[in-house]
């Protein structure tokens, strides 16, 4: 495996020529007076602030309500590019769910020797309480967020899967709203596939997995950790769009065979819980006894088919970074198909040979914690100085199982507004795939952009911004 | 509706009303301080203002002797004072933020904008801020939010809970505003109606934007009896205790109709209304204005507790 930095793929420019998909946008940019640009940028910010689209950061000082920087230059994918992504993402979402049903059921993939048993059963995310239970329609992960990066005209890689509760979809929707409000003419000049069907599709998906015991129209709720959670805005936004209640643990209680919510008219039965809290906080009787966020007795009701929890407890074992390596294998095993989308080549430090290679090549690799997220606890070799690398090497030697490494990919770059005009900045892409009675995928996703020149870290917690993502209509 | 949602809406409305009352009290105090007193100096009724907000002790602990500047800070900007304008607007906005999906966007926008502007005021040098502007700003923004609620909110249970928060808090606050009078006069009833305190009664009217209402409603001399009648027993005046209790009854009746079941809260409210309806100004002055107000505030608080038990705790009582 070569870990060299290849040349960077520019999504708008092909040498000196503007790619067809970006031609209208390039004209739009050229004809925009710079005063208008800064005016629009201010307008966008005040729209975000007024609507209250903020993410909350508590305990770090400063303003706890922050804006994610919004870049007005849209990112464009052609219909043809999307066709391939669409196929690959649906395929992945299906395989991941098949895998989850299997590892909590007959464990055929393990018995077939296609994935090592210890990676599954010793995994922290492998939920003993879920063994032997088949959720409605065999779906564990109802919302699969697939993180993609691009390195060439036809080369997309899956960086990771998010099978628990991927966040960010509110930005996909709001970025589009704000662009349509500020630049309606762009949407007349370009035929852009709409994304606003997402909320409806999500509601349909959640309703389709209501438990068998539910005889009437299912009562769906979103379970949030509360207003201090960084994604609280998103939770309330989705609840509003779907017209369902946004509840906290304290609003729910278990009595008899069901979960109830406390209303001004007394208890009302709950059928489907789209939870945005982690497994370990769901039920203090089953997991962390000190959890104040969950509902005592919830798991009993769940296991007896009185309520559906989305994503199902235990879904996290499928998106673990150590399991990630085996997703192409899952696709072959369960679907009998070849993977449409490739994985990034990955070294597992748990394997002796891999670990040796990683330690020798740290300056050119990206090393991640197996269970980490949000861009924390990772090493970007080419950007790190010697002492940082040495310190990290010690951590790897100490706990090799905890780390995986990948080549530093030359992430594609998209034109992004900067002080002097526009400049290419690295981007990734997260589409949101819905799995219920059917698999649904809205054409689009969240494009995150590393606003600092040369930076490859797109996480909002570390200076990343977001862009509207266009999929051109066929 | 989720009990917690109802609770947030209810408290959002309560805090907004409270912010307005604190601002009105500040205005009363500041105007009072412009009046000459018998000893040749100026009146200092700030203690009365603090007492009316039941916050004199906390103030003393933090600032010592009351002076105007400190009291203005305490009542407007001090986050340590739970009923300062700042604390109330922050709390109203936080309650709104949690249940913003239950609010229309004009309502959210009005609250959120007030919150953002207040942060600006907070950053401005005090010497550049005019207290009267700030109290006016507060009253105006509270009007704006209530207006947006009235004009845009769906008439569902959430609307009734906001209304309830508003009416219960206003009943309490009107009683407190009248009570400032008591502290200024001290318990001696012989002062009531004397020429000395005429200007203070007039000020009380002013603090509730009620001078015109008074003149349209009553003829002849301004007397304590007439003013007490307007502020306590007159159904036409929207801040009077009777109006506020009527208003609470209406919201509870609407809820009972909506949920198709009457409640204890409804009974408690209607009993309070009947008693108030039977009372006369003479009865009130015989009992003692302060005693009457204290008794009223306790019953009103009892009603609020019943509302909490019946609707907001989520388990039917």
Automatic annotation (TrEMBL), chain A:
Q: Which residues cross the membrane?
A: none
Query: Which organism does this record belong to?
Result: Salipiger thiooxidans
Name this polypeptide is given: Uncharacterized conserved protein, circularly permuted ATPgrasp superfamily
Query: A Pfam family this protein belongs to?
Result: CP_ATPgrasp_2
Residue span, Circularly permuted ATP-grasp type domain: 74-450
TrEMBL record, chain B:
InterPro entries xref list: ATP-dep_Glu-Cys_Ligase-2, DUF403
**Could you name the domain of life of the organism this protein comes from?**
Bacteria
Q: Which residues form the DUF403 domain?
A: 1-312
Protein name listed in UniProt = Uncharacterized conserved protein, Alpha-E superfamily
Organism from which the protein derives: Salipiger thiooxidans
């Amino acid at each position: 495996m070569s870990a060299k930095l290849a040349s960077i793929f520019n999504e708008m420019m092909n040498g000196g020529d503007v790619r067809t998909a970006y031609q209208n946008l390039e004209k739009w940019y050229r004809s925009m007076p710079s005063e208008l640009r800064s005016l629009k940028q201010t307008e966008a910010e005040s729209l975000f602030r007024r609507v209250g689209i903020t993410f909350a950061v508590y305990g770090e000082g400063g303003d706890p309500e922050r804006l994610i920087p919004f870049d007005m230059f849209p990112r464009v994918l052609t219909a043809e590019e999307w066709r391939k992504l669409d196929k690959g993402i649906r395929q992945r979402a299906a395989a991941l769910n098949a895998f989850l049903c299997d590892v909590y059921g007959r464990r055929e993939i393990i018995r077939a020797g296609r994935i090592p048993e210890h990676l599954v059963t010793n995994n922290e995310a492998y939920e003993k309480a879920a063994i032997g239970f088949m959720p409605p329609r065999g779906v564990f992960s109802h919302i699969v967020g697939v993180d993609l990066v691009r390195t060439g005209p036809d080369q997309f890689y899956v960086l990771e899967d998010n099978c628990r509760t991927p966040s960010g979809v509110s930005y996909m929707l709001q970025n589009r709203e704000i662009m349509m409000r500020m630049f309606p003419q762009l949407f007349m000049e370009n035929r852009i596939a709409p994304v606003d069907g997402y909320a409806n599709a999500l509601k349909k998906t959640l309703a389709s997995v209501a438990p068998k015991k539910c005889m009437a129209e299912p009562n769906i709720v979103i379970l949030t950790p509360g207003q201090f959670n960084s994604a609280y805005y998103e939770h309330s936004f989705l609840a509003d769009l779907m017209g369902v209640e946004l509840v906290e643990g304290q609003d729910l209680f278990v009595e008899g065979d069901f979960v109830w919510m406390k209303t001004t008219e007394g208890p009302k039965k709950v059928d489907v819980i789209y939870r945005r809290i982690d497994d370990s906080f769901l039920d203090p009787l089953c997991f962390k006894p000190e959890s104040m966020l969950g509902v005592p007795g919830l798991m009993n009701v769940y296991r007896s088919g009185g309520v559906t929890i989305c994503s199902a407890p235990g879904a996290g074992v499928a998106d673990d970074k150590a399991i990630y390596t085996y997703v192409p294998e899952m696709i072959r095993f369960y679907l009998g198909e070849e993977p449409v989308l490739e994985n990034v080549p990955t070294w597992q430090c748990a394997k002796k040979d891999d670990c040796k290679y990683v330690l020798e090549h740290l300056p050119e690799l990206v090393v991640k914690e197996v269970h980490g997220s949000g861009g924390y606890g990772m090493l970007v070799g080419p950007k790190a100085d010697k002492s940082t690398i040495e310190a990290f090497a010690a951590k790897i030697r100490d706990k090799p199982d905890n780390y995986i490494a990948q080549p530093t990919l030359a992430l594609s770059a998209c034109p992004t507004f900067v002080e002097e005009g526009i400049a290419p900045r690295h981007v990734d892409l997260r589409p949101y795939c819905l799995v219920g009675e059917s698999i649904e995928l809205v054409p689009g996703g969240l494009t995150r952009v590393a606003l600092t020149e040369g930076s490859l870290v797109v996480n909002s917690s570390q200076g990343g911004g977001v862009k509207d993502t266009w999929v051109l209509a066929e | 509706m989720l009990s917690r949602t109802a609770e947030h809406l209810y408290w959002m409305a309560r805090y907004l009303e409270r912010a307005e009352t604190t601002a009105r009290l500040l205005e009363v105090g500041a105007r009072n301080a412009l009046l000459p007193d018998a000893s040749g100096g100026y009146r200092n009724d700030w203690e009365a203002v603090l007492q009316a907000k039941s916050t004199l002790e906390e103030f003393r602990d933090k600032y010592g002797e009351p002076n105007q500047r400190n009291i203005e800070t305490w009542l407007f900007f001090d986050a340590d004072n739970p009923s300062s304008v700042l604390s109330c607007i922050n709390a109203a906005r936080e309650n709104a933020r949690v249940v913003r999906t239950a609010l229309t966007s004009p309502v959210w926008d009005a609250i959120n904008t007030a919150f953002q502007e207040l942060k600006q005021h907070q950053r401005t040098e005090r010497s550049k801020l005019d207290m009267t502007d700030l109290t006016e700003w507060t009253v105006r923004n509270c009007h704006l939010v209530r207006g947006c609620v009235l004009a845009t909110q769906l008439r569902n249970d959430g609307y009734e809970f906001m209304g309830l928060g508003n009416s219960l808090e206003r009943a309490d606050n009107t009683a407190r505003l009248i009570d400032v009078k008591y502290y200024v006069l001290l318990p001696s009833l012989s002062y009531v109606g004397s020429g000395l305190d005429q200007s203070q009664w007039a000020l009380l009217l002013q603090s509730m934007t009620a001078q015109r209402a008074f003149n349209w409603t009553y003829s002849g001399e301004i007397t304590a009896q007439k003013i007490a009648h307007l502020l306590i027993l007159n159904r036409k005046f929207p801040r009077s205790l009777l109006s506020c209790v009527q208003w609470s009854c209406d919201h509870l009746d609407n809820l009972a109709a909506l949920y198709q079941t009457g409640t204890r809260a409804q009974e408690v409210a209607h009993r309070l209304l009947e008693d108030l309806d039977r009372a006369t100004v003479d009865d009130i002055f015989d009992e003692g204005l302060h005693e009457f107000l204290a008794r009223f505030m306790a019953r009103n608080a009892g009603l609020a507790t019943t509302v909490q038990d019946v609707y907001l705790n989520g388990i039917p009582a």
